[in-house]
Design a protein that fits this description.
247 residues; mainly alpha; 10 helices; elongated; disordered C terminus
Length: 247
């Protein structure tokens, strides 16, 4: 195993560990099964935002005036920004670069292919910040539809950009797969399902599609990362692809 393989495995382990830590931390700050950031952030108007907030993120039967700023939701948003966003951006960039065109032939294209994943992360952090500001407005009884509409717009753009990022992964992974078997096609097919689900979520503001997309993305990207981390070939995947492609 050469130096590049060791570095690839090390990066994959760190990013995967960060993602697992982030998911567990967010699960610990979710009050009950069924409470979802996606549903809340795709509501589109202040009345629905307030109703869903009280239903999912407030103690049972509590009135708005008795709630001290929704600390669990704020913690959930913070952990999302600090752990989950860097993890999924890093994993998508890692996979895109590993499967991307050869660095010595298309250096600029490799960088541009990573833009959707990074931009999605930036919109995710902005969305979390705007949600925290909306909670402040709500506690002072001045939350307006425009504020919630901005959150929903940021959320829809995030899911749209993630769909594009996954389309890039599907494009590269499908050509990199080894053989016609179902195992080699599992990762790109799962990523394609995730991209379609995130596209539906972005277009229709449909939170249910987000859940499908998240599961599919975890399966697809996780399979790719695992295959790259365990690969014993002395030649990185991107170099192998670049050597046999004529792009």
């Amino acid at each position: 195993m050469n130096g590049s393989s060791i570095r690839r495995r090390r990066i994959a382990k760190w990013l995967t560990g960060l993602m697992v830590l982030g998911v567990l931390a967010m699960a610990a700050t979710t009050p009950h099964w069924g409470a979802s950031q996606a549903s809340l952030l795709l509501t589109g108007n202040a009345a629905r935002f307030r109703a869903l907030l009280l239903h999912d993120w407030a103690p049972t039967g509590a009135a708005l005036k008795d709630i001290a700023g929704f600390p669990m939701l704020r913690a959930n948003l913070l952990l999302d920004s600090l752990l989950v966003v860097p993890a999924y951006c890093g994993l998508l960039v890692f996979v895109t670069l590993a499967l991307g065109p050869a660095a010595n032939r298309y250096p600029s294209l490799r960088q541009w292919l990573c833009v959707p994943a990074v931009a999605a992360g930036l919109f995710d952090i902005a969305e979390n910040g705007m949600t925290g500001h909306a909670l402040d407005e709500l506690m002072h009884a001045r939350l307006v539809d425009e504020s919630v509409a901005d959150i929903t717009l940021a959320s829809r753009l995030k899911w749209a950009l993630l769909a594009v990022a996954l389309v890039v992964v599907v494009w590269r992974a499908w050509r990199w797969r080894r053989g016609p078997g179902i195992r080699s096609a599992l990762a790109p097919l799962a990523c394609a399902l995730a991209a379609a689900a995130f596209g539906v979520a972005a277009w229709f503001s449909l939170a249910q599609a987000v859940s499908i997309g998240l599961v599919a993305a975890l399966v697809g990207v996780g399979t790719l990362v695992r295959s790259m981390a365990t690969q014993r070939s002395a030649t990185p995947p991107r170099a192998e692809f670049g050597a046999r492609s004529h792009e």
